Amino acid sequence: MFTNKLKLLLCALSLIGIGACSTTDSTPAGTVTGNTMSAKIDGANWNSTITVSTSEDGDVVIGGTDNTIGISIGLSDARTTGVYQIGPISAENMASITESTTKLWMAGATFGSGTITFTKLTSTDAEGTFTISAVPSPTHPSTTGTKTVTEGKFAVKFTKK
Fold it and tell me: Three-state SS string across the chain, please?
């Protein structure tokens, strides 16, 4: 089951997109910054300037921002390389895209879709690709249309708590 801890981490990473994150020493234990994450969002190139990740007992969260748009992906029970579904096919995995403080698109248990493919997944690091088709969050009325993320790539290092 998608743990409350993973949901909390995913929500926290969603705040990255609205510039709420800094590179100070307030980074939580189990998180490493300075990793890489890039994609195309609705066809436009996007490169994260701040990328964070954490992994604990199969729960993996990867997120990044270019200080305008943030992408967060949260997975439950990700323990081996391979393809993991986001959305209705796998209700425990979710993704979000944030833009400003008023726009939020999501893929989760009953809406949107996506995949994350781990080509490398160990207790210390992960690499892979991702795609997301996210729909407006019902709690953010100024959000419209679907956000499509393609050609997503990441390389992150985890630390142990």
Answer: CCCHHHHHHHHHHHHHHHCCCCCCCCCCCCCEECCEEEEEECCEEEECCEEEEEEECCEEEEEEECCCEEEEEEECCCCCCEEEEEECCECCCEEEEEECCCEEEEEECCECEEEEEEEEECCCEEEEEEEEEEEECCCCCCCCCCEEEEEEEEEEECCCC
